[in-house]
Amino acid sequence: MLEPNWLDNADAFAEMFRLDDRIAIVTGASAGLGVALSKAFACAGAHVVVASRRAARLEETAQAVRGYGREALVQSVDVANQRQCAELVETTMRKFGRVDILINNAGMASAVPALREDPKDFRSVVDVNLGGSYWMAQACAGAMTPGSSIINISSVLAFTTASLPQAAYTASKAGLVGLTRDLARQWGRQPGIRVNAIAPGFFETEMTESYSPDYVTDSLEPRFVLGRSGRPEELAATAVWLASPAAGYVTGQTILVDGGMSTT
Q: What structural domains and CATH numbers belong to the chain?
């Protein structure tokens, strides 16, 4: 039998985009896009577990979440540590009794010429960006119920290159695209989890503060098809949509939110 058509009722249609009383875990929530993502999920009605290695700054994010009338749980975690990922989920389950949404946003970058990159440094980037997303997804999947959503934050550099030498970062973010497809296939029917990714273009964050003005002006801005860098709320809105019932038939996909950078 066909499900009721949401388009027959304007209020029901609007509810498709809501996340009321869902429980969302956001990693890398102490700064940058992680803060915007945490706020957006609170705006959409979710209670948010804010997690990061830098626990001191997490309370600011938690206060912002609470400002929207939602509950927030602060948790320090190194996502490269599988045990800590499992403990984060266990703590969430004790507090809320469920996990509905995971945003794998924790990440790090490096810019080292390939012939000079130290193996330890290369592995540390991959361990956080790719390995950490896998360990968090693995831990959450065991607790999630049908209809839950995992969103991996990849990068436009999974599809194109920049002028900086970023082999470790690019490899880890491209790996996330493949991981997203595989987990979507594995977990689609049982336990009924949708797994997608977002590939951001250039957003001004702590990670990009070290870029020289000349690099941004000469190398990046000419590739901004829309003529500007991205705003954090634009990325966060895409994540909310992917986690909501409105994207209920979307899985295994990577959504580019890059202002057209990947087309240049």
A: 17-256 (3.40.50.720)
- Whole-angstrom Cα distance, residue 26 to residue 175? 20
Catalytically active residues are: 169
The answer to whether 23 touches 47, Cβ cutoff 8 Å, is yes
**pLDDT tens, per residue, the chain with 264 residues:** 456 677 788 888 999 999 999 999 999 999 999 999 999 999 999 999 999 998 889 999 999 999 999 999 999 999 999 999 999 999 999 999 999 999 999 999 888 889 999 999 999 999 999 999 999 999 999 999 999 999 999 999 999 988 788 999 999 999 999 999 999 999 999 999 999 999 999 887 766 666 667 667 777 888 889 998 889 999 999 999 999 999 999 999 999 999 999 998
Note if the pTM is more than 0.90.
yes
CA-based torsion, 127, 31, 103, 226: positive or negative = negative
